[in-house]
Structure formats: C-alpha cells, structure tokens
Amino acid sequence: MDRYDCVIVGAGPGGSTFARNSARKGLKTLLIEKESLPRNKACGGALSPAIRHLLDFDHNTMVERVVRGVTFFSRDESEDRTFYPDGMAVEMVSRKDFDNYLVRRAVDAGTILAEKTRVTSVKESKEYVTVSTDGGDRITASIVVGADGARSVVAGNTGLAKEPGGLGFEVEVYPRDRGVLDEYGDRSIFGFGFIPKGYGWIFPKKDHFSVGIGTTWNHMPGITSLYRQFTSRFSFLKEGCESDRRGWFIPYTRNSGPLNTRRILLVGDSARLTDPFSGEGIYYAVLSGTIAAQTAFDELQQHGRLSRAYTKVITRNIIKDFAYARLCSDIFYAAPSFFYRRSRVIRALTMLSNKEIRYRDILKELHKNGSSTESSGKS
Ligand SMILES: Cc1cc2nc3c(=O)[nH]c(=O)nc-3n(C[C@H](O)[C@H](O)[C@H](O)COP(=O)(O)OP(=O)(O)OC[C@H]3O[C@@H](n4cnc5c(N)ncnc54)[C@H](O)[C@@H]3O)c2cc1C
C-alpha cells in the first residue's frame, strides 16, 4: 500500500492550489483526478483579478480577455444598460487551459499526479486515511483533501457539507462573423428575469462566447427553454456554432458546520464555497485551498492531527459574508433593474468583484438613499 503525507482528490483550482503548497513544503503529495487532463468543466470562466494575490505565479498567459465593461438587461424591459466602471477588470479564462496550468504548477513543485483515476471511497482511522480507487488501489495518507467538486465523494464519505445547491449550464458559442467578438468583446452581459433567483450570462473569450444560465434553485424544469428565451435577443448567438451543453451543480452553503475532521479537509465546491449571489467559485476554491494549506501543515507537525482551526477560519473569512450575500441576493432579485441602473451600485459591484469590499459593505450601499442614476446609457 502506497503511503503519502497528503492525498488530494480532484485537480480543479482548489485541489491544485493545495497540492502545490503541500509539495513546496517538501511533503510527499499525490493529486488524484478522475478525468484525463486537460479536462473541461461547465463554467463561465470569469475570474476575479484578486486571484493574483493568492497565486504565487503569474497566470497572464491563461487570460484570454480582460473585460472592463458590463451590460445588464431584463426580460420585461427593452432598454439595456452598459457601464465601464473604473477598476473593472474581470479576467476571462478557458477552464480547460487554466485548470491544467494550475495542475502543471503543482507538478512543477513536486506533486505526483494520477489522472484517469477515480476515488471511490475514503476511510479515516486514528493514524491515517485510506483512499480507494476504481483501479483497486488502496493508498494511505496522513491527511486527505476533498477537492472533488460539487458531488464530492470525500464529503459524502465523511458526512461533511451536505446541503443542496443550485445548478446551471453553459455552452460555448463560436460566432459565424468574428466581428461580433470585437463589438461585444469588451464586456460581460447579464440578463435577468429569465430564471428565478439567477441570471443568464454572455462572457467573451478569445474566439467564442461562454453563454449560460444558472439559478440558486436546486431544481429547474425547462431550463433549456429559459436559456433559449435569454439568448433570443442576440442574433449572433442564434447564428453561431454551439459546443455541447454542459450542466453542473453550483453548491451553496447555509450553515457553518464542520469542514474538516482530524485528517480530512474539504476545499472549494466540495466544501460548498460558491458565492450565493454571483455563483463565483474559482476564487473561493483557490482561497480555501490556500487557507487549508496554511492551517494544516503546522497543525500536523505540532499535533499530528487537525483541530477545528480550518473550519473556523473559513467560516469567519468566507461563510459569514455569504450570509450577507444571500440577503443581497434576496433584495437584488426582487427588482434587478432598479438596482443595476444606479451607478453607485455598479461601483459597489465592481469593488465586490475585485474583493475590495465585502457583502456586508454592499448591503450598506444598497440601503443608502438617493443613489445617482447616471450611466453611459449605451444600449
Ligand atoms: C454553469 C457554471 C458556471 C460557472 N461559472 C463560473 C464563473 O464564471 N466564475 C467562477 O468563479 N465560478 C463559476 N462557476 C463555479 C466554479 O466552476 C466552481 O466553483 C469551481 O470549479 C470550483 O473549483 P473546485 O476546484 O472546488 O472544483 P472543480 O473545479 O469542480 O474540480 C473538481 C475536480 O475533481 C474531479 N473529481 C470529481 N470526483 C472525483 C473522484 N471521485 N475522484 C477523482 N477526481 C474527482 C473532477 O473531475 C474535477 O476535475 C460556475 C459553475 C457552473 C456549474
């Protein structure tokens, strides 16, 4: 039976971040991924620029576009609103390339990668964790990180982070006329009123658009027809060439139950750390992978096992603010166009996306009276 210091299940952004940190510490690290890499993932691929503060390497070559504008529209209104707020710089990546890039950085640091290997169970004992794979291997490790996404086997086996979440699906649309990428390539487009408690998006990439729709509801019959209604305003989408539709879960958390045991930690989607207002999850996967690494190694060295420190830090730094995010979401989705017309709200949303402020601050903004209504008015 192979023995490792750390085994990480899942090579998304959360798993790769932890693996790189672990290998850099000199720990014997194994990263297990069920797919063959590079693999795709249902995702808009919109990154907060603040992710730069978490990564200890440059990811510029992975950024296909930096988007400095945003257009909002509603199903029941003919006018849309476009803004180019100071400081907006959303980075658009292809998940296939970006995730693979992070895996390579983990491997560069000394991580051993096992792809096309599905973890079927994890079992914790006092001294170690046993990880079983679909190939019949049994591997032991001092700690195991569940970074295996929204349907996490690790979370399921340990009884942690079990709440339901939302869902969404995404399509890549390659426009027939490449000129539309010049016309629409400088902004994200968001449409409201097509799906309850959610939105449709159009994000420009190097040679295509990521187009999708998502909701915090965990069940959405007729989502395909809602998607069609959302895209019907844009003729270039109807004429474009579509990839396969990719649907997946967007896991949210409501409570702050434990996210680790003595030898197992959950990061990213397996810990249900997706923003309940925006659905953003890549940043939080990398943030939780970083925090997990910061807390776990010292504890292992000092005590030979984990305390509740990781759960406490994640609750304080992420989950508490997600409670405010849910409140913002309740207020915003009651009348999206009332809010997105206000330049003060747009400024606050930009700062929020840059992680310069938190949801508790944006709530204060929303409650301020007399918001100004000026905008560039481009439609
Ligand atoms: C439609 C949609 C659009 C989204 N758009 C955005 C967006 O624009 N921006 C944003 O920030 N977030 C977005 N998200 C959320 C984002 O995709 C996730 O939050 C993010 O991928 C979480 O990263 P992760 O590392 O935790 O997990 P994942 O990226 O899901 O990676 C988990 C990995 O584990 C592997 N795995 C799973 N089970 C096993 C197993 N048993 N054994 C071995 N390996 C396994 C999987 O193959 C996968 O590679 C979107 C989500 C959806 C569904």
Helix content: 25-40%
Shape: globular
Bound molecules: flavin-adenine dinucleotide
Cα distance, first to last residue?
Answer: 63 Å
* Overall mean confidence score, pLDDT: 93
Counting DSSP H or I runs of 4 or more residues, the number of helices is 11
Predict the CATH topology of the largest domain: FAD/NAD(P)-binding domain
Order of helices and strands: EHEEEEEEHEEEEHEHEEEHHEEEHHHHH
Query: Would you count the extended β strands for me?
Result: 18
Q: What's the CATH first level of the largest domain?
A: Alpha Beta
Low-confidence segments, given as residue ranges, are 370-379
What does the oligomeric state look like here? single chain
State the major sheet: 8 strands, mixed
The CATH homologous superfamily of the largest domain is named FAD/NAD(P)-binding domain
Radius of gyration: 21 Å
Beta percentage is 15-25%
Output the structural class: alpha/beta
